[in-house]
């Protein structure tokens, strides 16, 4: 099997996950997508955003017909209009069938943003008045100004909100939880909010988060604190970062490339502890032999945690930026570790250095969704083009001072 057929196969199997684990019984939870195969009855609002993008891919590739695609998108947007929200922000998790908030989980800014990215992608692709109307309502009701606050002279977004004293992530009193003060996966939030906030505040928010620079083995980049790889991909799965530099001259695609190369170099440097790192890389957040875990690599703000677990989806998500290095590892896994590949494509993570080699039995919606979009972008750039060229995102880029580069070089060989 050549590399292109391998990627096409992974793409189609990824799409199958969203078909099999989205709720298709008409009712209040229609279209919501499971957080993971481990707990299929619990929906993730972020996975639902990836699913909305999946129906675009499915329609373009004729894996589903137009009538079915429209039914899924319109139905999902109707659900998003009606499920619980707080000032437009969705709960992180919901009961998949009823659409009711799951326990006392937080209202999550980043998970809402991932969902909204799917809404924009669907709006950009389908010329359908119902989709345009529902999508516009969902986007416009989000009260971004409610999240804005000032700390140490910098304008920041709060990270989440929970009104319940015994709620998730509540430590002392209910209310706002933490803040986006670091370079991580939240860049999409500045794009989504800029058209709805005063220009000065939008610019101050983008300026407000720290842009710490680190270096490992000659790879210099703006780092996230823990060095996990997914943080360099979640915004970039939709936003064609290679086309733009930000007001400080940063090209986030080049940053993601350096992050991927540094992650691989760090794994090689640690192969004396974990022999599988000689051929495998991708330290991120994923399932693992000890449950869900967050691994990272240098450069980071502190010594990163890792235990031999490789997040396969993360090295796949790095394909647009480290095509040769990612493809080499993908082919190695496919041909030499068949247990890493199943009905929904590559498993979430593996750990060959565990006492008994570990192959994750679960598929996580946001992980599979990110790698799915990145493969589609390598093959066609369609998700990048739809999202980045949408008028809302174009307006945001103008407000924030992003400038388009003269020529984009993509190395998918």
Description:
The structure is a single chain. With 413 residues, the protein is an alpha+beta fold. It has one domain (3-404): Glycosyltransferase (Alpha/alpha barrel). The chain is 41% helix and 13% strand. It contains 13 helices and 17 strands. The strands form seven sheets. Strands 3, 4, 5 and 6 form a four-stranded antiparallel beta sheet that branches. A three-stranded antiparallel beta sheet has the order 12-15-16. Strand 10 (285-286) and strand 11 form a beta hairpin. Helix 1 packs across helix 11 (365-380). The mean pLDDT is 97.
- Helix percentage range: 40-55%
Unreliable runs:
none
CATH class: Mainly Alpha
Largest sheet: 4 strands, antiparallel
Q: Based on the coordinates given, report the CATH architecture.
A: Alpha/alpha barrel
Terminal CA distance: 16 Å
Summed up, the helix count is 13
Structural class label: alpha+beta
How many strand elements? 17
Query: What kind of oligomer do you see?
Result: single chain
What is the molecular shape? globular
Mean pLDDT rating: 97
CATH homologous group name: Glycoside hydrolase 144 (GH144)
Number of domains: 1
Tell me the Rg in angstroms: 20 Å
Predict the CATH topology: Glycosyltransferase
Strand/helix succession: HEHHEEHHEEEHHEEEHEEEHHEEEEHHHE
Secondary-structure topology with pairs:
Layout: H1 3-20, E1 42-44, H2 45-60, H3 66-82, E2 93-95, E3 107-108, H4 109-125, H5 129-140, E4 148-151, E5 154-162, E6 175-180, H6 187-193, H7 199-208, E7 213-216, E8 219-222, E9 244-245, H8 252-269, E10 285-286, E11 293-294, E12 310-311, H9 312-317, H10 323-336, E13 341-342, E14 345-346, E15 349-351, E16 358-359, H11 365-380, H12 382-388, H13 391-400, E17 403-404
Antiparallel strand pairs: 1-2, 3-5, 4-5, 5-6, 7-8, 9-17, 10-11, 12-15, 13-14, 15-16
């Amino acid at each position: 099997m050549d590399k292109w057929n391998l990627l096409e196969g992974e793409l189609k199997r990824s799409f199958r996950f969203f078909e099999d684990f989205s709720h298709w019984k008409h009712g209040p939870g229609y279209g919501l997508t499971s957080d993971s195969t481990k707990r299929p009855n619990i929906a993730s609002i972020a996975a639902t955003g990836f699913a909305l993008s999946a129906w675009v891919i499915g329609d373009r590739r004729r894996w589903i017909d137009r009538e079915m695609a429209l039914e899924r998108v319109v139905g999902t947007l109707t659900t998003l209009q009606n499920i619980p929200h707080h000032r437009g922000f969705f709960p992180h998790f919901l009961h998949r069938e009823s659409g009711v908030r799951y326990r006392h989980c937080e209202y999550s800014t980043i998970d809402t943003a991932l969902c909204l990215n799917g809404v924009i992608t669907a709006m950009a692709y389908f010329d359908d008045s119902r989709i345009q109307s529902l999508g516009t309502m969902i986007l416009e009701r989000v009260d971004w100004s409610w999240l804005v606050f000032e700390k140490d002279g910098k304008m920041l977004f709060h990270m989440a909100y929970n009104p319940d004293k015994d709620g998730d992530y509540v430590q002392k009193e209910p209310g706002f939880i933490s803040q986006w003060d670091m370079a991580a996966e939240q860049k999409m939030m500045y794009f989504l909010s800029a058209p709805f906030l005063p220009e000065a505040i939008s610019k101050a928010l983008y300026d407000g988060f720290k842009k710490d620079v680190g270096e490992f083995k000659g790879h210099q980049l703006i780092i996230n604190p823990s060095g996990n790889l997914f943080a360099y991909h979640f915004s970039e799965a939709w936003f064609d970062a290679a086309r733009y530099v930000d007001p400080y001259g940063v090209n986030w695609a080049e940053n993601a490339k350096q992050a991927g190369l540094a992650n691989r170099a760090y794994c090689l440097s640690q192969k004396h502890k974990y022999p599988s790192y000689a051929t495998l890389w991708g330290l991120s957040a994923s399932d693992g032999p000890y449950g869900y875990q967050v691994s990272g690599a240098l450069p980071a703000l502190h010594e990163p945690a890792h235990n031999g677990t490789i997040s396969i989806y993360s090295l796949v998500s790095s394909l647009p930026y480290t095509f040769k290095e990612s493809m080499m590892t993908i082919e190695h896994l496919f041909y030499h570790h068949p247990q890493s590949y199943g009905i929904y494509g590559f498993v979430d993570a593996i750990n060959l250095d565990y006492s008994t080699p570990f192959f994750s039995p679960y598929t996580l919606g946001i992980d599979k969704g990110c790698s799915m979009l990145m493969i589609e972008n390598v093959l066609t750039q369609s998700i990048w083009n739809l999202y980045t060229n949408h008028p809302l995102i174009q307006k945001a880029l103008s407000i924030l001072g992003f400038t388009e580069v003269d020529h984009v070089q993509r190395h998918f060989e």
